Amino acid sequence: MKLIECPRDAMQGLPEFIPTATKTAYLNTLLKVGFDTLDFGSFVSPKAIPQLRDTAEVLAGLDLSATKTKLLAIVANLRGAETAAQHPEISYLGFPLSVSETFQRRNTNQTTAEALADVATMHELCERTGKTLVTYLSMGFGNPYGDAWSPEVVTDFTQQLAALGIHIVALSDTIGASTAATIAPLFSALIPAFPAIEFGAHLHTTPTTWHEKVSAAYQAGCRRFDGAIGGFGGCPMAADELTGNMATENLLAFLAENGLDSGLDSAAFAQARAAATGVFAFH
């Protein structure tokens, strides 16, 4: 099972700016844990997400000399993708493609058709620069806008991504709308239908619903999970204020419960968890 730690998602909505040195120190602690991938920052407009305006400076301060963890940066447009692609330390670019037309316009100021065209160009850019594009299907389990959603809609989006040659697709529960009853059928249908794609789960959850969500995705064949220590972060549009990122601790508990090895350094994880408490204590 691949564990993707997402401090970027945990930090991005915080109103008080976290000093660059604090961010860098925290990320360096995470790099010692052994995660498959670290979603560390975002090359987007500083006006849109001021918290991440220092991503390039943070990247320059990361110690990558003794880590197996790969770096992922989120981008919102071609300009951001081109900037991120200039950094050889970054392995993955992540782009949010929304199943909801309304959310695509709100998130990246595009139609979904325009975003899909950008995905094609970003994929070509990644191929040229030795990187891999991770496409997040945001609002992948439903949306609050009344836009059409069904397993067939998600399958249609995935088909278009498969035709472009996209290798990684993460179904993203942007507002915590998913349930075991929606998660299981989606992964059960998509994973065998698109064997060339690695599917991931970026789930948002309340403290009481995490287990059923992880179990449903895992039992349906998903082996790539995003999490954030402490469950920090999440979408500000979620109706329930307790809805946040999937807590990494819960993912580890699920693995332990099922006799599965996380592959993480437990001592380093404990240090990272303690460090997270300090980083997010006043937010």
TrEMBL record:
Record-linked Gene3D superfamilies: Aldolase class I
Keyword Metal-binding in record: yes
UniProt GO molecular function: hydroxymethylglutaryl-CoA lyase activity; metal ion binding
Biological process, per Gene Ontology: ketone body biosynthetic process; L-leucine catabolic process
Keywords: Lyase, Metal-binding
Record Pfam families: HMGL-like
Residues annotated as domain Pyruvate carboxyltransferase: 1-270
Keyword Metal-binding found: yes
Family (UniProt): Belongs to the HMG-CoA lyase family.
Name used for this protein in its record: Hydroxymethylglutaryl-CoA lyase
Organism: Hymenobacter sedentarius
